[in-house]
Amino acid sequence: MNEKEFAELAAGHALGALSDADERRFADALAAHPEWRALAEYDAETASLLADAVAPVAPPADIRDALLAQIAQTPQSDAVAPSARGAERHGEHHEDERHDGAAARPRRWSRGLFALAASVVLIVGLGIGAAILVPQLTQPASVVALEKIEAASDAQQSTVRLDDGAQATAHWSASVGSAVLVTEGLEGLDADRTYQLWLVRGKDALPAGLFETESGEATALLDGSMHEGDVIAVTVEQAGGSPTGLPTTEPIIAIPTA
């Protein structure tokens, strides 16, 4: 499972909209990738904010139908079997119904649908507040983590400039326990190579994820928990990362955190 797929599950989990099977997938993915916890926590906090911000009132009688109609019209990122698409066109949204002998697949909650559901709640309770809060729901885990770090009382950062003019800034917080690297002007790599992050702790180099640049820019959340005093480093490795679990080239970026 990649981060985008986990983000979809995290959105559905925060809204209580996952099936039992997807709840298990969410829990398994979170256990396997603790670095994604910030994304799940952000969604949960946002869902809680939505609930707390709106006073308990009887919803309009047609709000459920309106929401389902909007969901039915929202493009999905997942490929849906032709039989399932046919079921949707005829309004057959129940998981136990059949069309042409095939079971309709349960709809997954994407980030877009999470924002849509939140929009309905906010429009009912807060009116134009939706335009302000909903965009916050679509942020990637690295941006969410960066915001948490910057809001921490012990937030720190350090910037290095490379010989070719590119620069990299490490942001970290001991209380948050995570670090994010932001790059500008970092050259793109061929398809057979990738940038790999490392947390260098004493004599040990711990792999901390891979990242790519877009127009020289990247915001990358390091996997694992950062300890104060670690060195945040980047090497260029073969596609998929170092086959040995250790750096195979000299670091192009090395930023001490102490």
From TrEMBL:
Membrane-topology annotation of the record: Single-pass membrane protein
Bilayer-crossing regions: 113-134
Keyword field: Cell membrane, Membrane, Transcription, Transcription regulation, Transmembrane, Transmembrane helix
Primary localization: membrane
GO MF annotation, one: sigma factor antagonist activity
Location of region: Disordered: 75-104
Subcellular compartments: Cell membrane; Membrane
InterPro entries referenced in this protein's UniProt entry, alphabetically: Anti-sigma-K/W_factor, Anti_sigma_zinc_sf, RskA_C
Domain Anti-sigma K factor RskA C-terminal, first and last residues per copy: 114-249
Ranges of compositional bias, category Basic and acidic residues: 86-102
Protein name as it appears in the record: Regulator of SigK
Species this protein is from: Microbacterium aerolatum
Organism lineage: Bacteria, Bacillati, Actinomycetota, Actinomycetes, Micrococcales
